[in-house]
Amino acid sequence: MATMKDVARLACVSTSTVSHVINKNRYVSESVTLRVKNAIKQLNYAPSALARSLKMNRTNTIGMLLTTSNNPFYAEIVRGVERSCYERGYSLILCNTEGDLERMNHSLETLLQKRVDGLLIMCTEIQGPSKDLLSRYPAVPTVMMDWSPFESGGDIIQDNSFLGGKIATHYLIDAGFTQIACIAGPQDKSPARARFQGFMEAMKQSSLNVPEEYIIFSDFEFAGGFDSMNYLLALANPPKAIFAGNDAMAVGAYQAIFRQGKMVPEDISIIGYDDIDLSSYMIPPLTTIHQPKDELGKLAVNQLIHRMDNPLAEGNVIVLTPKLVERQSVKRC
Predict the structure, then answer these.
(1) Which residues cross the membrane (predicted)?
(2) Residue 299's closest CA among 84, 121, 76?
């Protein structure tokens, strides 16, 4: 396998000149550049990313820990992260935790062994990674996205879920509904908890009672919304409107309503949360709370690169503002 020295020898230049031509980090005359490129082509030389990373103490890679889920929200977040990494000249290594602490530790160690320049973390395990594991590696710049199981001293970028929950609920109240149920996400996750608290606060502000059977804590998945909606439809006095803690559960609720021979919004109105791509293609299109997923991914990558360049900077909490996307799943009473 050809080396940079072989290229330099054939082109009759120094190895530093070959490096400048490859990395385009210093001016090299056109004639010399042409000689170097011809030598590279003749020798079939491929630059070593490992050698470059050892010399520069940078790998130009970013690691991301992510919870595996059927929820399209995660895929849309990753899309934004991957696009931003590409635009900034970084490669992304994605590791799924599968919601398992042991796998999270294994994935985290894999990323640290690969000497990633920074970490994006968006996973839901309750317990943080092994302290013994972290002690074996130098501190890596970290940005938490949406939620995370542990403190890092890095930056946190999250949605104002409490405000989003209030906006969704007030929208149903302003539409004339008083019998409103909430299919909330798992309460050990801070966004799910904040959205539910926003729902309760809006109901309290409007002096509306929430029967205990109208509150269901589910799992942020399609099946959870389906099962929860079936439970609500079986009540002696079922609700007239639903706030689903995310769009995935709202989609599951649609399916349960359809199978019961009922219709959205004629029989039951629904509002979701996240504004996943699928929500605008539902029948009818789902009214929801928009979470800026592409912006979240871009902001997380930019913030992480800033922290990599400024490791002593204080950690920031950046809060994104949700907004209502009005479609056709809520009728006016």
Answers:
(1) none
(2) 84
Query: Tens place of pLDDT for every residue, the chain, 333 residues?
Result: 788 888 889 999 998 898 888 877 789 999 999 999 999 889 888 776 555 554 556 688 999 988 777 788 888 999 999 999 999 989 999 998 877 778 888 888 888 888 899 999 887 656 666 767 767 777 888 888 876 555 556 788 888 999 999 999 999 999 999 999 999 999 988 889 999 999 999 999 999 999 999 999 999 999 999 999 999 999 999 999 999 999 999 999 999 999 999 999 999 999 999 999 999 999 999 999 998 888 888 999 999 999 888 888 888 888 899 999 999 999 998
Task: Report the 10 Å Cβ neighbour count for 205.
Answer: 12
Q: Cα separation of 332 and 319, whole Å?
A: 32
Kindly give the residue spans of alpha helices, DSSP state H, lying in the chain: 4-11, 15-23, 30-43, 49-56, 72-87, 101-113, 131-135, 161-174, 190-205, 222-233, 247-259, 293-309
Fold of 4-47: 434 Repressor (Amino-terminal Domain) (1.10.260)
**To the nearest 10°, the Cα dihedral for 217, 221, 224, 228?**
70
Pick the CATH number of 161-290 from 3.30.110.10, 3.30.450.20, 3.40.50.2300, 3.30.70.660: 3.40.50.2300
CATH code for residues 58-159+293-322: 3.40.50.2300
Please give the structure tokens belonging to residue 320.
């994104």
Task: State the DSSP code for 287.
Answer: B
| CA–CA gap between residue 158 and residue 164 (Å, rounded) | 12
